[in-house]
Amino acid sequence: MVKLKPINRKEAALYLGYGKNEPDEVIKNLMDECEGPLMDACHPAFSFGVFDILTCSEEKIVLSECTLTLTGKDIGKLLRGCSKAVLFAATLGSGVDALLRKLQITNMPKALLTDAMAGAAIEQICNDFQEDLQARFPNMQQTMRYSPGYGDLPLDLQKDLLATLEAGKRIGLSVTESNMLTPLKSVTAIIGLRDIEEEERLNRLKDALASGADINAELSIGNCGKEACEGCAYAAKCHRGDRKE
Amino acid sequence: MKSKIQILDGGMGTQLQALGLPLGGIPEVWNITEPDKVIRVHEGYLAAGSDVVYTNTFGANRYKMAASGYTVRELIGAAVRNARKACFAHPGTKVALDIGPIGKMLAPLGDLSFEEAYDIFAEEIEAGAEADLIVIETMSDLYETKAALLAAKERSDKPVYVTMSFEANARTFTGTSIDCMALTLSGLGADAIGFNCSLGPEELAPMVKRLYEITELPIVLKPNAGLPDPVTNTYNVSPDEFADCIAELLPYGIAAVGGCCGTTPEYIRALKKRVDAFLSEEKEYDLPGKTKLTGICSSTDAVWFSEPRVIGERINPTGKKKFQEALRAGDMDYILSQAVSQVEAGADILDVNVGLPGVDEKEMMVRVVRELQAVVNVPLQIDSNIPEVVEAALRAYNGRALVNSVNGEEKSLAGILPIVRKYGAAVVGLTLDEGGIPKQAEGRFAIAKRIVERAEALGIRRRDIQIDCLTLTASAEQEAVKETLTALKMAREQLGTGAVLGVSNISFGLPNRDLVNSTFLTLALQNGLTLPIMNPNSEAMMGALRAYRLLMNIDEHAIAFTEAYKNFVPQKAEAKPGAEIPVGAVQDETEGKIRAQFGDAPAELYAAVLSGRAERGEKLTVELLKTMDSMDLVNGVLIPALDTVGAGFEKGTVFLPQLILSASVVQGAFGRIKEHMQSTGMKQVSKGEIVLATVKGDIHDIGKNIVKVLLENYGFTVHDLGKDVPPEAVVEAAKKTGAPLVGLSALMTTTLGSMEETIRALKAAGLSCKTVVGGAVLTPEYAKSIGADYYGSDAKATVDIAKEVFGC
User: ipTM score of the complex?
Assistant: First the structure.
């Protein structure tokens, strides 16, 4: 069972357009009244899978043991240097949709606040998951969460992503014809995992490049530990491939 | 003698994955491309002892198979042939057509209609006509399950097993409880019901025991091999542990048993051994009794008729002008708010009557039932005596409903009862017939008896019949009151049915109606009334019911009673209501002007709007209407208040929640003003008509609803078409209303296309209306590029646009 922490009010206020301002007492009190029913309506659940990245080129990422391929330049950039990709789907459940429908009939101000607070709640579920993920993979560094529809990662991916995670069966999550997630308060995302050592190596490489140093010397060419140059961000600058010839 | 227990098979997906099917691959395609591997899985189970194998068609519906390159007919046809081939070597074994969820959510959660879902399932069922039985499994949405079961019953005569997937909290993902599942599916004619997937046998054990107590149907059980490890995806229960755990459950009415995710032929082999041992042993089990009660339900809440239950009477246009107007205008918000307020006041069930001249009752009934079920959880009583209306409502209903009503007339018996039987509803039987309402109790009892006999002959259970001995008005037929009570008692005692009464009729034409109503309610309860139809907002009647429940020891330890009256203060005759906290002055320029022109109370109303004090605002409005012209109140106080809040919003000193809070104060005040104008016969002036819709494909409509509240605040008449609205419907509404402005909202980039399409359709229809568009991803440039006349950046901006269009 996924536990829900108290709602992050600051996050909710942000969604409501408060920016750096704080809601006044009237609104704060209303938020207090909204929190109980929202918590009762939430049945948070998530599903995830950790996959090895087989190839990661500019346009296409192929994962192990599943049929899903990720396309687009932006996801390629995100996953550069990552050895694993985590597919993730989370939802607050359909009870929240029902609560929001009811509130829109009976109390619009509360509907608006509850909607924003539910947004903060699902964000919290995602953050908690990422903490948990870190504990499972202590030597790996996570990329940001990246969702279908961001940048040039197609939204059409939703259906296949959910199928890969069996999200319908496991957490009751599906998409509409226009790729909207149902229940409404749900998130799907891709998170890259890269070895922290690999990360440090990449940083050294970056620094070396920036200072105009000879990166071949820096990394003792051909000894980078990678099996193939394909997908390596520095393939063009590095001469491992040349040396092999 | 124990009856046979069928051994079902185990997991299919995991077995196919072991044979090389990748994660996310389409298992059903293998029916055609790798039939030998599919047959090998079936053979594995048959060799292990399965009597029934499920075809490899869990996802073989037209939605999930869209990208497979094959038709549903091809995939299912091949699957049935594969299963049949495997069964040849095992005489007596059977092929079950496996039907899983569609993979899309039904409205109101998603965008799939009930009718579409039915068609999808019907196609699967017809494609699998060669199977020996049908299994509908892994369902979590009761409504989708109903669509599948209806399709199975209407398109096939094979037995149907239905199993749903429950979470650890004993509910499905969409909140359906075991009770709701049992009431609904047994009503609809499932041959066996039960559980599969999601949990292991240990977690499902208490749920099996609960189901055993509340259903007369055989139980099907197909658990997972325990719970999966989230990373490795392996299950944690061994074949022997699995079988041992299920062995404990076999006495609880289990008629078919197998495994789901993570189970293999090893699990089935172990299970077969336990089942054989159970069937041959001669041991008596001490089992709990089966319930003698009946009940009705929505998809989430079951109401058992174990004690008096309140049926709310307010959704009914009879004698209610406001309700009639709402029905004629299709104003769902009003109808829904009536529903919510009754539920909040304690209604267990809501009566739904939408019969009104000039309104298509069938269409309206279906619409209202669906809208109600999206907002309230209590079960509904379908109130109509027209068979077509009742059937359409029962078909659209999610759960098990109560039908109000059949009566002793031949036409009614022949028209209503078969529908009640088909959809498995409970039914109210009115004790009147061609000869009217018999004066004496005996006459009414005789009709009740006839109704029961006719219903039972069709297979409707006696306990599902609720006899209504009819309340006549005491002021007109004083001597008839006793007859009603006597007939009620006779029906309860001699027929063993439940009893319904419309209580409030009794006091028609009398003063102090609450007193008469609550006294009559108590008398009727004492004579066996189980389902009073009444106004739950009447404190006197609810109080009488609470006291009755307390005195009859139904409300044990008076828990509900003390909870209801914990803050009770006896009212003294001369008691004055507590002083109200006035709203502090806001002291801005506008307030000063209002105070100077209209006085202190209007200035306070102005302040109440600004500070979001809804109750105070309504009270002040009621007071002010006694002395002040309503148009002055609107244009001199309320609109200036909204303008002040709106200006603050634009400056960034007032935020959206405050704007909406103020808008809701004005909404409340408007409600009072409208009532006042109606009662004084004044014509209401609308600033103009606007059509609003969230476009096709889009199901996020909170933004549009906010815009609606604000537009109504400013006196515009809004025709709200809801969400996921096709272009044709927008065109039709624009034509019908002649609205000069159409507002469209879309949340996501994927639905902007249908926004553009809608604007194009409006233009193609030759309509001269202007369009305003809004939504999170829209920009002024984009709005222009799709041909919209205006871009509404937020609710306030949209109001300003409307003012411009209407020149006010």
Answer: 0.90
